[in-house]
Write a structure and sequence with these properties.
The protein is built from nine helices and twelve strands. By secondary structure, it is of the alpha+beta class. Strands 2-1-5-4-3 form a five-stranded antiparallel β-sheet, with helices on both faces. A five-stranded mixed β-sheet has the order 7-9-10-12-11, with helices on one face.
């Protein structure tokens, strides 16, 4: 932009040399641009003393709203304040000069110098006005471009931080999964009696350990899934999924948690042949999240009912209905937002990351389905998932 300005101004005004110097300023980047007519050579980089002289001259011109228009340096008698600039003009071989400050409403931050070499030149009022106009346009463009550049740098930094966060979550989750798999394996061996018969109190303790290991494993899976979603690497491995066996498997896995919480967990009457084209592992994660949420927010003596029915259109409807604490109406718009937790759940200090429903919605949407929630405070909550029977989405949908 600066190069185009000095080149265009030099050609249009038939000048010998155009020099633009933008000083160090928080509003704009420091830069210098120059153009010269052949056979003149480019000027060397300005020294700190020359920059200081130019800056002082620029500030005085800006404060007094003036420009310097010198037709012939040989007959020009500079003021005391202008002697430094006059000496600089001599050093660059200027015989006639037009100096215009560059700045915005606050102050000047640059100087535009148009000069002749070897002969005088009368600078007309039109030429002076055009140069001032171009200087003003340049100042505005430099400020705006610097703002945009800073915004782009900030966006890039945020992207790098976000990627670092995603990489950290993925790494930590993988590192946690390895020892947890070993713990779960040895725990299963102990419960199966491979190390001999266990006393009753030890069996009860192992049951609690197993329940919490399952909860930790689900949390790790949520973190890994969210990191894949953020990185755009969550892929659908489509297959024909029989929904009743899948739901029964999830309920069996959740049964110890339901028993420990004294919550009745059951699967309603289900038609045998209901199936969808979907990713079985991701669907299992969806219903694991929904059912574990329902159990977590349902007090002892309550119930969680899972139903599966065909939809009127080509699809199926799965409902997870609980008799839990319900969700305050003000929280409903944010329930599918990552890391959001209902206010009453936070007040009750119930554990959770706030990722479960966000992951559920993302996976269901990727399957071309929809998820809805109805809740009444103190009565209970119903999560409804609709899935199409025939999968029409691409196996992989990149994150927007």
């Amino acid at each position: 932009m600066a190069d185009l300005l000095v080149r265009g101004l030099g050609d249009a005004m038939e000048a010998d040399r155009v020099w633009l110097q933008i000083f160090a300023d928080e509003r704009v980047p420091q830069l210098a641009a120059q153009w010269q007519r052949q056979p003149l050579q480019p000027l060397p980089e300005a020294t700190p003393e020359q920059l200081e002289t130019l800056k002082g001259l620029t500030d005085r011109l800006w404060e007094t709203a003036h420009v310097i228009s010198i037709d012939d340096h040989r007959t020009y008698e500079p003021t005391i304040a202008g002697r430094g600039a006059f000496a600089l003009a001599q050093s660059i071989g200027a015989s006639a000069s037009l100096l215009v400050p560059v700045g915005d409403s606050a102050s000047a931050f640059g100087l535009l110098w148009v000069s002749m070499a070897g002969h005088s030149r009368h600078w007309t009022l039109t030429e002076t006005s055009i140069t001032q106009h171009l200087a003003a346009d340049l100042a505005h463009s430099l400020v705006q471009s610097h703002v945009i550049e800073r915004q782009n740098q900030a966006v890039q930094l945020l992207r790098e931080l976000d990627q670092a966060k995603a990489d950290f979550i993925a790494t930590v989750s993988h590192e946690l999964r390895t020892p947890l798999t070993s713990i779960s394996g040895y725990l299963e061996m102990l419960q199966d009696g491979d190390a001999g018969e266990l006393p009753g109190n030890a069996a009860a303790m192992l049951h609690i350990i197993d329940r919490n290991a399952t909860r930790l494993r689900n949390l790790i899976e949520d973190l890994l899934t969210q990191s894949r979603i953020d990185a755009g690497r969550l892929r659908l491995e489509l297959a024909t999924v029989q929904l009743r066996p899948l739901l029964q498997a999830v309920l069996s896995a959740m049964a110890p948690l339901a028993s420990a919480s004294d919550v009745k967990l059951e699967l309603g009457a289900v038609e045998e042949d209901l199936s969808v084209q979907a990713d079985p592992q991701q669907l299992e994660q969806v219903f694991t999240n929904l059912i574990s949420n329902a159990l977590k927010f349902t007090p002892a003596g309550g119930s969680v009912l899972v139903t599966l029915t065909p939809a009127e259109e080509d699809g199926v409807v799965i409902e997870v209905r609980d008799t839990g604490m319900g969700i305050p109406p003000d929280d409903h718009p944010n329930l599918f937002t990552r890391f959001f937790r209902a206010s009453n759940a936070a007040e009750a200090a119930l554990p959770g990351t706030g990722l479960g429903l966000a992951i559920v919605q993302e996976i269901v949407h990727r399957h071309g389905g929809a998820v809805d929630i109805e809740s009444e405070l103190g009565v209970g909550t119903t999560l409804t998932v609709w899935l199409p029977t025939a999968q029409s989405v691409e196996p992989h949908i990149p994150m927007m």
